């Protein structure tokens, strides 16, 4: 039977470490505060925004939220970001994605001061990751690395297949696994012989955004399976990109959804906020 990789427990462990560190840094007069911007009232986004604010309160950093109406113009949003860039009491800026269709996400991300880019989405942060220089790491892939490390999964020399090539998960995930000296393959929706390729993976990381897409035919016996997907099924039940019930018996370790990668994303966001104080 597969060992469950408990993201809920590990994220709690990280938040507790950060809480202690923040208390220490506070004694030296250091503080941090996160500004969260949400445009429109998407209920899923509201849940995530609330979780982020709760996490800030838990570890002892400030947060302020800007809930803007759906009709907000790109100019108005850019003006708010400029204001927060200038504001000394704000150390991190997060613009909840996705944004309404009339706003250019790329422009918005580019407007954030890279020194406050706690999501790690700015091109300067992405470039720094690529060449191995200092910058904020994107929270979800950084969370996956922490899950693997804290579960004792050896990465060096291992065959890692990443399914998905997005700018916020697949691509930065590949860079981080390379840093850990894994041998990395990035697969995606157009990859030929995807099943055969995935079956070679010692570590399979899935972020394709298709519910229960990965079945037992994609997984080698003993593989470590990390599921980045999150989907709300009818009846509000959550599931990932991996069909957990059929893959779990094959895997040596596997993340559940919920309780896997999701909570780690928030823990690593908190780590990036604390990084502004260090
Ligand atoms: N600028 C920006 N930064 C983000 O980091 C960002 C974003 N936009 N837009 C949306 C996605 C999604 N995301 C998640 C965070 C936590 C959970 C999480 O905590 N999930 C829980 C379940 C939560 C639930 O019940 O829905 C779990 O998997 O156990 C999931 C997803 C951050 N995102
Ligand atoms: Mg893709």
Automatic annotation (TrEMBL):
Residues 138-277 form the Tetrahydrofolate dehydrogenase/cyclohydrolase NAD(P)-binding domain. It comes from the Bacteria. Pathway: One-carbon metabolism; tetrahydrofolate interconversion. It catalyses: (6R)-5,10-methenyltetrahydrofolate + H2O = (6R)-10-formyltetrahydrofolate + H(+); (6R)-5,10-methylene-5,6,7,8-tetrahydrofolate + NADP(+) = (6R)-5,10-methenyltetrahydrofolate + NADPH. The keyword RNA-binding does not apply. Gene3D superfamilies: Leucine Dehydrogenase, chain A, domain 1, NAD(P)-binding Rossmann-like Domain. Its EC number is 1.5.1.5, 3.5.4.9. GO terms for molecular function: methenyltetrahydrofolate cyclohydrolase activity; methylenetetrahydrofolate dehydrogenase (NADP+) activity. The keyword Signal does not apply. CDD domains: NAD_bind_m-THF_DH_Cyclohyd (cd01080). NADP(+) binds at residues 164-166, 230. Pfam families: THF_DHG_CYH (PF00763), THF_DHG_CYH_C (PF02882). InterPro entries: Aminoacid_DH-like_N_sf, NAD(P)-bd_dom_sf, THF_DH/CycHdrlase, THF_DH/CycHdrlase_cat_dom, THF_DH/CycHdrlase_CS, THF_DH/CycHdrlase_NAD-bd_dom. PANTHER family: C-1-TETRAHYDROFOLATE SYNTHASE, CYTOPLASMIC (PTHR48099:SF5), C-1-TETRAHYDROFOLATE SYNTHASE, CYTOPLASMIC-RELATED (PTHR48099). Homodimer. Catalyzes the oxidation of 5,10-methylenetetrahydrofolate to 5,10-methenyltetrahydrofolate and then the hydrolysis of 5,10-methenyltetrahydrofolate to 10-formyltetrahydrofolate. This is Bifunctional protein FolD. It comes from Eubacterium ramulus.
């Amino acid at each position: 039977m597969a060992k469950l990789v408990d993201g809920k427990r590990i994220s709690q462990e990280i938040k507790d470490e950060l809480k202690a560190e923040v208390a220490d840094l506070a004694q030296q007069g250091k503080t941090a505060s996160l500004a969260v911007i949400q445009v429109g009232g998407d209920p899923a986004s509201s849940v995530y925004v609330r979780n982020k604010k709760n996490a800030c309160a838990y570890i002892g950093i400030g947060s302020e939220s800007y809930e803007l109406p759906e009709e907000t113009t790109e100019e108005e949003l850019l003006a708010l970001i400029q204001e927060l860039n200038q504001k000394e009491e704000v150390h991190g800026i997060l613009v909840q994605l996705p944004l309404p269709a009339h706003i250019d996400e790329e422009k918005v991300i580019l407007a954030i001061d890279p020194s406050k880019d706690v999501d790690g989405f700015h091109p300067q942060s992405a470039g720094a990751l690529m060449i191995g220089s200092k910058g904020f790491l994107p929270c979800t892939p950084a969370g996956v690395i922490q899950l693997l490390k804290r579960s004792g999964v050896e990465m060096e020399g291992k065959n890692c297949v990443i399914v998905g090539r997005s700018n916020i998960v697949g691509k930065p995930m590949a860079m981080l696994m390379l840093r850990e000296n894994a041998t990395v393959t990035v697969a995606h929706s157009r990859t030929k012989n995807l099943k055969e390729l995935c079956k070679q993976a010692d570590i399979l990381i899935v972020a394709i955004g298709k519910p229960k897409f990965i079945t037992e035919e994609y997984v080698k016996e003993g593989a470590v399976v990390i599921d980045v997907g999150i989907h709300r099924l009818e009846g509000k039940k959550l599931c990932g990109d991996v069909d957990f019930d059929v893959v779990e018996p094959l895997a040596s370790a596997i993340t559940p959804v919920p309780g896997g990668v999701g909570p780690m994303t928030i823990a690593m966001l908190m780590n990036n906020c604390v990084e502004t104080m260090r």
